[in-house]
Amino acid sequence: MFFESAPAKINLALHVVGRRPDRYHELESLVVFADLCDELEADAAPADRLTIEGPFAGALGGETNLVTRAVTAFRQRWPGLLDGGVALRLRKNLPVAAGLGGGSADAAATLRLLAAMAGVPLPLTDLMDVAAGLGADVPMCLVGRPAVVTGIGERVAPLAAFPALHVVLVNPLVPLVTAEVFRRLESHRNTVLPRLPDPLTRPAQLGIWLAETRNDLEPPAIELVPAIGRLVGELGGLSGCMLARMSGSGATVFGLFGSGAAAHQAAHDLRSRHPDYWVAAAPLRSND
Fold it and tell me: pTM score > 0.90 for this model?
């Protein structure tokens, strides 16, 4: 049995800096990962099959799921490398269409699992090429550590250091279609990210840097789901929160905290106020 976690991806900052002739958007983003994960298991089987379980399993379809596509892409890139089929079981713990890269993280975890099952070293550059063919967020999820991401998501530069922080995530359980959020974006050519401190080791450094950044997708997402704006204000007003902002194309809002105690207290308060929302608290994963 092989096991991989698929951690939630969080865009601490996301600037839309251009639009290519093929209509894809050029982005610059600081990406981190929370210790909140979908879970994926794999074992040898007579034929490939995928089983989905967990609190958000009902939102996915096996035929179009990115896990299934990742298996197909892996077999096409390395035909004959895997003996027989692969039985995959995905436990879907993260909300779908939430700006957390859940499907992309699942696909990246699938590629890591299949590479482990193959039992031979596979170049990361080749795995990244396969990941890029599955979606813009899959390469950064394959790396799975704090990084600056540019291009349409295919260029991933891991950071040498990142401070220890905790995060609270809250989602009103309203899915957002990324294409619709981009359609409402007023400007497709905005300012680039400021230069990051090097090394980035202290929360105060990050806080000062983040104050000069934004998520360009937040205003159009709030137009579609006004609850996002209310949650940003509510989470940002809780004790110990150094920044509240929307992640990705939404609708998940995150809050950064310097201590686990403050983060879990904030999550408790939010659950009390919004019992129908998805709320979670966890440390951010390091760059190790």
Answer: yes
